Amino acid sequence: MAIDTQPGHRLDKRPGGKRGPNPARRVVEDTGRVLQDNGALVALLVLVLVLSFWTSNFFTATNLLNVGVQAAVTAILAFGVTFAIVSGGIDLSVGSVAAFSGVMLGWFTTTQGMPVFVGVLLAILSGTACGLLNGILISYGKLPPFIATLAMLSAARGLAQVVSEGSPVVLPDSLSWIGKTIGEWLPVPVIVMIVMGLLAALVLNRTYSGRSMYAIGGNEEAAHLSGIRVRRQKLVIYTLVGAFAAVAGIVLASRLASAQPTAAEGYELDAIAAVVIGGASLAGGVGKASGTLIGALILAVLRNGLNLLDVSAFWQQVVIGVVIALAVLLDTLRRRA
């Protein structure tokens, strides 16, 4: 008599006295695995379908482009935060670093009269320096990522206020194209979002640093014993987070046509939420750029749909909070399973 050695398969009789796994059970298990691996994408598709039926203005080309533009800054921030969360850390400073980078962009190009290209490069370097400082505090100062980046959240926001003297800095007209649309159907912020998403996926999947992020997030001690220079890789991780935050700040400032020291307040929470909703684990070791993009789109679609349904901003915060809680709960249940 044949014995099925695979656990979880129920045996049933087949012609000739043979037994095998129950086909119906296998279909259910395969379907469950697909939903578990692509739960965020399924949720996004369901959300789009529901809102398309509830409001006639949602599923239009113009509104969908608006959703993409609204998701762009959050997604770019979230791609950087993905590096930190995959490695078992966190970064609460990305919103403040984005605002600081935008203010530095305005200061370099307007107050100092530098060429736009040079101003953009120096703004990115400003955000990258903030990320590098986070990495130094975490790697060599032994500060928990929560504390180090919380300190940077306050410091970067304060520096933005100091440099701008508390007032918005108007950007040159030559920078406004970053926040606009090429032709009728090609928003530049969406293009930047896609490019940064591809870059994040490349780092995570095709580089030594990306593989180190997963190893450190899975088990930092084991990563160290296997030869990974954990402190050096954490420097790389948080420097990348700062660079992505700087790009997001430049896009946001260009959309607003001015660099505002109060910009991007609360965006760090949206970025973290996008990463978690996209399937990353706050325990580390799990996450991918495509999931983060889907998480950012879910938040943007949800906000856009609630606006079209005339739901008050207060209730929108409640709904988004529930969505985040459910995402973390599902992650916990998935890890237990």
From TrEMBL:
Residues 1-24 are annotated as: Disordered. It is found in: Cell membrane. The keyword Cell wall biogenesis/degradation does not apply. It is a multi-pass membrane protein. InterPro entries: ABC_transp_permease. GO terms for cellular component: plasma membrane. Keywords: Cell membrane, Membrane, Transmembrane, Transmembrane helix. GO terms for molecular function: transmembrane transporter activity. CDD domains: TM_PBP1_transp_AraH_like (cd06579). The chain crosses the membrane at residues 40-60, 67-86, 92-109, 116-140, 185-204, 235-257, 314-333. This is Ribose transport system permease protein.
